[in-house]
Write a structure and sequence with these properties.
Two copies of one chain form a homodimer.
Chain A lengths: L1 H10 L9 H4 L4 E3 L1 E3 L2 E3 L5 E4 L2 H4 L8 H13 L8 E3 H13 L6 E5 L2 H18 L6 E5 L8 H5 L4 H4 L9 E4 L8 H14 L3 E6 L3 E2 L5 E2 L2 H13 L3 E5 L23 E4 L11 E5 L1 H7 L19 H16 L2 H16 L8 E7 L2 E6 L7 H11 L2 E2 L6 E4 L7 H16 L3
Chain lengths: ~425, ~425
């Protein structure tokens, strides 16, 4: 194991890490295998994946059913160019996705990762407005938002540590105050003022419905989503929902928009779509948008955005297997019971007065550690968690629990009992 | 099969396509299975994949060895978060990649697709210059370049159909005249003048070494790459080689830079890396760059770029299997013989006087169809090719042959004999 760590640090630069932290602040952990909610190390260690490996895994690692479907697919067709060619797994998947939204959308456009599909939605919204002779040049998004890290996605994001260094490269996005919990009236007012002043310049308003995940798990009222969407309709601006993190049951419904009483023009999905197996993303949209681009070749209206592996058959097979499990295990209903159980158990953490703002939304639970000035308490929870067999990866001093849906009640108890042990050391 | 086509067109918007073309200009082709160089349809049709499914497949579809390695991996570990955690497949892969470059690079930073890894390199180069207190705000790239379609990648690209609609969103990139064949002196002069005038504002120069692939398979002299790189060194500008399409043996050497007598600061790889199975990309770079970001946490110098599936274990397993095949089959040497055979056979096409500019570089062969004004001759080749069992996807009226390396001599003969039949109908 030591040689793995040494070689990793010699040859690899990890994402979203200050590599210097590996000198003494955090260990680098080689994972040998995984099964269900558990990740296994090389010396008998095991960790409960409390964050679903960056919010992607929903039915456990190396899920036997998804494994089998992946193996079956690779014996038939691993990949084929997705321009002019197609295959059954993606047709099946597309049909199911549209049906799952109760036909609120008409078409699926695919990409490989969350950032890329956000770029697709931004470009589609932008080009559609341009084809309609609107001289748009920017977007509206929320303060505290995270939408990915390619330049377009970064432009509509607002988490300083991610985009500060790249300001001269970013395209224009007006950031309005983010709603927090039930406080959203000010945000709505700011949105309406911004729309009034700039409506001819704005292509779309982009938001993460119900939870700004990377932005400290900021959960907020569905009414904001509804009213903001209606405002955008009133001013003729497209609405893009980034459900990359919150889609596929995470907020308690299959998609977060179901709880908001509105549908966006573009619904971006990724992460859980393949069950945590493979990069795959898709934007769902309506024929009103599709038709703007649909024209004889010589009119040059084709939407030219492609990635080599767009529509990858292996990823689609995993996605179909994931949707099979949703259906046969009635997962959305089962999660309500599980979410209540987690919520109840989590109340015990309130005995620690430095734990504040305990909140939940479906299968996401979060709280903040407050009162420790200039201390990386989140990092301490990460390190102590590892020693107790928990993979937690706090966002600063916000701790969140966002496990695979297959976690058992016993495993939940184990997590919270160990969290309590950790917090006892903080007193 | 008809119902597949109908359902596809009902629910799916394909990449890089004017969907209107499916009404009468091109068929949509459902693929049921694949093996080696062949794609199989639903009614007994088979097609030789002459373009390696957008230049990704190098050892054939559903390659038994890669299939086996993928299956073995999914029984151990399908995916784990790649921040703070790691796994053997990616450590092995990183070590092998660095070794394959003869230690010209030190570190690997991963992403999922070509566009994303270009964005990584652009952001790294940009932030590194900023950390060194240079007030950079732009890049230099080549006219006729293609580097991907997310906003950052699009900004350094220069193929009008891709980025015209998005101009107000793009970041600044100065485009200099592209070299063509042996004509590169003017380009070098323009590069030097641009560097002289703007050196304090430029973070990096980006180019596709040896072949601008999407730009009509424009092959050009390695001397340009060498001298341009040396000029950038002289003026203190980073150099990024986009080897997404040309890496992994495509130009005749494992990497194109080997033929140029220089190494860039950033080497971007994707496509062939996973053998055509799964989205995976990586940028190789030197410790001089890595060290600029390596600092105590509180200095805020971490390079924060991540994708959920960065470092995906399944994709890495396919990549390792691909490198195994390169080694055991001595592929680079074998391809030289194959490339000569293809070149010799292709000479027969010169009997058609509308075929011009026949050219090759390693395992890429291309030629242009000239003299037909305002006719989509490429499209005609595509359609007639399909009827003869060939998957060709011309770039406008440029036809290219870029097959998996496992194609046999008989299959090559089949391709060119059928191409000749197609061209006979043009006379």
């Amino acid at each position: 194991m030591d040689s793995l760590v040494r070689e990793d640090l010699e040859y690899i630069w990890h994402p979203c890490m200050q590599m210097h932290d590996f000198e003494k602040n955090v260990p680098l952990v080689p994972i040998k295998s995984a099964s269900g909610v558990y990740l296994y190390g090389y010396n008998g260690e095991k960790y409960i994946d409390c964050i679903s490996s960056w919010w992607v895994n929903i039915f456990g690692h190396c899920n036997p059913y998804i494994n089998q479907k992946l193996k079956e697919q690779v014996d038939k067709l691993e990949h084929v160019i997705f321009a002019t060619f197609t295959h059954e797994p993606i047709i099946t998947l597309s049909k199911r996705l549209i049906k799952l939204t109760n036909y609120s959308f008409d078409k699926c456009f695919y990409a490989d990762n969350g950032s890329s599909v956000i770029e697709v939605a931004l470009k589609m919204a932008f080009a559609a407005k341009r084809f309609e002779d609107k001289n748009v040049n920017s977007f509206i998004s929320l303060q505290n938002a995270y939408h990915g890290e390619t330049i377009g996605a970064l432009s509509i994001g607002d988490i300083g540590i991610y985009n500060e260094s790249y300001k001269p490269l970013l395209c224009k996005s007006i950031k309005i105050k983010a709603p927090r919990g039930d406080f959203y009236l000010e945000s709505l007012e700011e949105l309406e003022n911004t729309l009034k002043e700039n409506k001819d310049k704005i292509a779309a308003f982009v938001l993460e419905p119900l939870i700004q995940c990377a932005g400290g798990m900021n959960m907020y009222n569905a009414e904001f989503v509804k009213e903001a969407t209606n405002l955008c309709r009133k001013y003729g601006i497209y609405v893009i929902f980034d459900e990359i993190a919150v889609g596929f049951g995470r907020t308690g419904s299959m998609f977060a928009f179901e709880q908001c009483g509105v549908t966006p023009d573009f619904l971006c999905l990724s992460k859980g779509i393949s069950g945590g197996y493979l990069p795959l993303s898709v934007v769902l949209l309506k024929n009103e948008v599709y038709n703007i681009f649909y024209a004889p070749f010589y009119e040059n209206k084709a939407f030219l955005h492609s990635h080599s592996y767009t529509g990858n058959a292996l990823a689609c097979a995993c996605a179909n297997a994931t949707l099979d499990i949703f259906e046969k295990d009635n997962v959305i209903v089962a999660n309500k019971i599980l979410s209540d159980f987690i919520w109840e158990k989590a109340q015990e953490l309130l005995e620690f007065n430095f734990i504040q703002n305990l909140r939940r939304c479906g299968m996401v639970l979060a709280f903040d550690i407050v009162g420790f000035v200039n201390e990386r308490k989140g990092l301490e929870v990460f390190n102590k968690g590892l020693k107790k067999g928990l993979l937690l990866r706090p966002l600063g001093n916000t701790i969140y629990f966002m496990p695979p849906y297959v976690i058992t009640k016993d495993e939940v108890l184990f997590v919270f009992d160990n969290l309590k042990c950790i917090f006892e050391t903080f007193q």
